[in-house]
Amino acid sequence: MAYSEKVIDHYENPRNVGGFDKNDPTVATGMVGAPACGDVMKLQLKIGPNGIIEDAKFKTYGCGSAIASSSLVTEWVKGKSIDEAVLIKNTHIAEELALPPVKIHCSILAEDAIKAAVADYKKKHSA
Ligand code: FES
Ligand code: FES
């Protein structure tokens, strides 16, 4: 299977690899797994008081498409509000990276990771 140039670029030069302290109240953590293949993605967002995502980092144990999808979303979410970030759809990711049908679930993992991180943030901040 041939990877698109964008996948290879993100795979070879992943953006924003790493993590933040999950106990920091401004940090949201989304950890999701793909039942189909066992790959795991951890996405962390650093969120300002106004709900704007100031920074994002990821660690992905998975295939090239999963790594590229998570790298891409760390770039996309920065500067967005959490309400805007949850509107990012796996179809946008798959289209940007030109993922073939068998790799669509890798982009779903990235969409799910954003939603999981935002849910974590809302849980942390619900009084
Ligand atoms: Fe093995 Fe995704 S199926 S890395
Ligand atoms: Fe399973 Fe990519 S996340 S093959």
TrEMBL record:
Pfam families: NifU_N. Belongs to the NifU family. A scaffold on which IscS assembles Fe-S clusters. It is likely that Fe-S cluster coordination is flexible as the role of this complex is to build and then hand off Fe-S clusters. One of its GO terms (molecular function) is iron ion binding. One of its GO terms (cellular component) is cytoplasm. NCBIfam families: iscU. It comes from Brumicola pallidula DSM 14239 = ACAM 615. This is Iron-sulfur cluster assembly scaffold protein IscU. InterPro entries: ISCU (IPR011339), NIF_FeS_clus_asmbl_NifU_N (IPR002871). One of its GO terms (biological process) is iron-sulfur cluster assembly. Residues 2-125 form the NIF system FeS cluster assembly NifU N-terminal domain.
